[in-house]
Amino acid sequence: MLNLILFGPPGSGKGTQAAFLISQYLLKHISTGDLLREEKAKGSKLGMEAQRYMEQGLLVPDEVVIGMIDQKLDEFAGKVNGFIFDGFPRTVAQAEALDNLLAEKGTEITKVLALQVSEAELLRRILERGKTSGRADDVNEETIKRRVQEYNVKTIPVAEHYAKKGKLSNIDGEGSIDEITDLLCAEIDVLQ
Ligand code: AMP
Predict the structure, then answer these.
(1) CA-CA distance, 93 to 101, in Å (whole number)?
(2) H and E: helices and strands count for the chain
(3) Which three-class secondary structure state does DSSP give residue 169?
(4) What's the pLDDT tens digit per position in 143-191?
(5) Could you confirm whether 135 is annotated as catalytic?
(6) At a CB cut-off of 8 Å and minimum separation 6, what does 149 contact?
(7) Around Cβ 82, how many Cβ atoms within 10 Å?
(8) Interval between CA 2 and ligand 1 midpoint (Å)
(9) Is 14 a catalytic residue?
(10) Number of domains within the chain
């Protein structure tokens, strides 16, 4: 299996790039942000609970997202070439849980592709996206800054977790969409 983590701060282009990579490599895209927004749209208890954190730009509790991932891995086990995780794992506890869930299924993370984008560029991109995304957490500058702060404090250690295993590759995320796709594909092609 080819199991990739598309890693990077909010607004670094993970969702945009994942959309291309899933068709190129026939992988299943798992975005915890998308899954949480679906739960919210359905009005489920989980969605309502998650919304309280999301609208403030805070991370949703680990057990909530780990439970969702566990279900998705079961749903697609044996049916796909692999997964692209987008927006997950966001804490070291999530990374350890993911490693264990994949090990139970006889597989593992192949590579973590980390998009590097400056904070000024992130803020610019998210405010631009907020004009059309319909996401409350994309329009308020304070909320965006809190999301970036959550990333800096809780999520950057995840890169270190995978660097120790020799699985981290840093990618310049500031070029054009096509340039970044080419850089990602060059990394993935040598894995196969
Ligand atoms: P995203 O669409 O990835 O930017 O995520 C939007 C929001 O959903 C985040 O600001 C968090 O509140 C929540 N969220 C998404 N993925 C996770 C995760 N892996 N762990 C905790 N919270 C998450």
Answers:
(1) 12
(2) 9, 5
(3) strand
(4) 999 999 999 999 999 999 999 999 999 999 999 999 999 999 999 999 9
(5) yes
(6) none
(7) 17
(8) 23
(9) yes
(10) 1
Question: Domain residues for 64?
Answer: 2-189
Beta strands (DSSP E) in 25-180 are 28-31, 83-86, 111-116, 168-172
Backbone angles phi, psi at 108, to 5 degrees: -160, 170
Ligand 1, atom 5, residue with closest C-alpha: 33
With 0-12 CB in 10 A as exposed, 13-18 as middle and 19+ as buried, what is 171?
buried
- The CATH number that applies at residue 167 is 3.40.50.300
pTM: 0.96
In short, whether 57's Cβ falls inside 6 Å of ligand 1 is: yes
Give the tokens for residue 166: 């020799």
Helix (H) or strand (E) holding 86: strand 83-86
CA 33, 37, 42, 48 dihedral sign is: positive
